Amino acid sequence: MTTQIIAAVPARPFGLVRHSLVMARRSLIKAMRTPEQLLDVTLQPIIFIVLFVYLLGGAIAGSRHDYLQFLLPALLVQNVLFASAPTGVSLNTDIKTGVFDRFRSLPIGRSAPLIGGVLGDMIRFVVSIVVMIGFGYIVGFRFQTDVLSVLAACLLVMFLAFCFSWMFVLLGMVVREPGAVQGLGFVIMFPLTFGTNVLVPTNTLPGWLQAWVKVNPVADAMQAARALMVGTGPVAGPVIKTLLWSVAILAVFAPLAVRAYRRKA
């Protein structure tokens, strides 16, 4: 089906964009036909909220309701970033099963399967955000800012996750097995997402960990999300840092991933 769609697209300017969108549509169709692929972004946010709020909230903040207001914006960043890791696994699986061999025989841009795969997997970010915020509201979370600020926070987190996806695309291109891609993804994501102020304020951490938090782009994104959603702390600084980190990650890993794919092709 995908082959027929792409083959029917005539050669015109901006072909790479059109081909990438077709490949993104393919990813969306895969997700709709195998909804179990979305179990992690539908169940994990709920599990994390219940686990951290009801297990740690009373001990850390004294009030589970107050801890939920502190935790949820940062937990939103963490879960959306975790949702970016399977992109590399999916692409690696396509390569192992020979799907990409068919793409190479088509008159499409070499990088279109990668770009389309990343764009299509952004549905995972949307689902994760909707589930996290929806369940958070059910258990008592409330925004303290306006709608535009909340929307800006969600878009900022999605952009950061989009840029991080290219890191996992690169892993998917250079690692031989999908399981290895997934394992390396967790090794990368755990220190980046838990080595932050997601669970406790930065000033309660030991000095060496505070130093790591200050240079961790995920910690900046969590501060930005808290500022935009619940009005905690300054907005401009964390948002600008997050955008700069995102652009830097994209500028480094996207070309490397495309280069690795072209070498395979």
Structural overview:
The protein is 77% helix and 0% strand. The protein is an all-alpha fold and 265 residues long. Helix 3 runs antiparallel to helix 4 (64-82), helix 4 runs antiparallel to helix 8 (122-138) and helix 12 (217-230) crosses helix 13. The protein is elongated, with a radius of gyration of 19 Å.
What is the CA–CA distance across the termini? 22 Å
Secondary structure: number of strands: 0
Helix content class: over 70%
Separate helix tally: 13
Structural class, from helix and strand content?
Answer: mainly alpha
Note poorly predicted spans. 1-11
**Rg (C-alpha, Å):** 19 Å
Order of helices and strands: HHHHHHHHHHHHH
Strand content: under 5%
Give a short account of the largest sheet: none
Globally, the shape reads elongated
Give the overall average pLDDT.
84
List the helices and strands and how they pair.
Blueprint: H1 2-7, H2 15-33, H3 39-60, H4 64-82, H5 86-96, H6 99-104, H7 112-120, H8 122-138, H9 147-174, H10 178-194, H11 207-214, H12 217-230, H13 236-264
Keywords:
mainly alpha, single chain, 265 residues, elongated
